[in-house]
Amino acid sequence: MNQRPVLRRCVACRKLLNRQQLWRVIRDHQDGVVLDAGMGRSAYLCPSENCLDEARRRKRLHKALRCQVPENVLEVLQERLNSVAEAR
């Protein structure tokens, strides 16, 4: 049986992609805003400089999660992006 990929939409560029290609940001009911794992309201973001800038500038993650996203979460995403760019 062939499984279809689970698609999610990037909050910045609005592209519909396989969820494994995207970063997941979660508003967890206990821990606040966390990355990658947890239960709660989720927002997805492309791992690209343009999408991260757009999300930061227009507060796309704040709106999608309906809460304030701590600056350190955005910094962790920026570090991930930098490490991916260095690996290339």
What's this entry about, in short?
By secondary structure, the protein is of the alpha+beta class. It is built from 3 helices and 5 strands; from the N terminus they run βββββααα.
Can you describe what's shown?
With 88 residues, the protein is an alpha+beta fold. The protein has a single domain, classed as YlxR-like (Hypothetical Cytosolic Protein, Chain: A). 36% of the residues lie in helices and 25% in strands. It has helices at residues 49-57, 60-65, 71-87, and strands spanning 7-9, 16-18, 23-28, 32-35, 40-45. Strands 4-3-5 form a 3-stranded antiparallel beta sheet. It has a two-stranded antiparallel sheet with strand order 1-2. The model has no long low-confidence stretch (mean pLDDT 89).
Describe how the helices and strands are arranged.
Layout: E1 7-9, E2 16-18, E3 23-28, E4 32-35, E5 40-45, H1 49-57, H2 60-65, H3 71-87
Antiparallel strand pairs: 1-2, 3-4, 3-5
Distance between the termini: 36 Å
What is the overall shape?
globular
What structural class do helix, strand and pairing data support?
A: alpha+beta
How confident overall, as mean pLDDT? Answer: 89
Helical amount: 25-40%
List keywords for this structure.
single chain; 88 residues; alpha+beta; Hypothetical Cytosolic Protein, Chain: A; three-stranded antiparallel β-sheet; two-stranded antiparallel sheet; 25% strand
